[in-house]
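Hi support team,

I'm opening this ticket because the web form for multi-chain structure prediction keeps timing out on my end. I have pasted the exact lines I submitted so you can reproduce it. The total is 148 residues across two entries, so I didn't expect it to be a heavy job. Is there a limit I'm missing, or should I split the entries? Thanks in advance, R.K.
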Amino acid sequence: MSIEVIFGKVLRNIREDKKLSQEQLAHLSELDRTYISLLERGKRRPTINTLIALCKPLGLKPSEFLGEIEKELY
Amino acid sequence: MSIEVIFGKVLRNIREDKKLSQEQLAHLSELDRTYISLLERGKRRPTINTLIALCKPLGLKPSEFLGEIEKELY
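Hello R.K., no limit was hit. The queue was backed up. Here is the completed structure from your submission:
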């Protein structure tokens, strides 16, 4: 599984855990909703800037988000 | 300080701690040396794929690298 696909899976899981829609997350992170959909489907490679922007409304630290990805990677 | 500049500072510090040149890190991470120089000068926004590629030869987890950035951010 590619890094982008893992990232998308983790992003969707955390977003759904927080009971946020893509629309709400887009608004809170000041990103475009379609971009969030593309990220969740593993179609884009997010920068660390995007990761940091997403983590604020998701209420976790970027290092914690990466920790979730590492569980799937290593 | 922008996220890219913080990233570059942290990257340079860790690379120098490991006594690696930009050339050696480029070879080991399969990235271009000029790109590493641009990253270290805060001129590029790395993707998480690039972060993960850099962390292998630097001998730390991406979440640990992000933890270093968080120290400067928050």
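A quick check on our side: Helices of chain B lie at 3-17, 22-29, 33-40, 48-58, 62-73. Let us know if the file doesn't open in your viewer.
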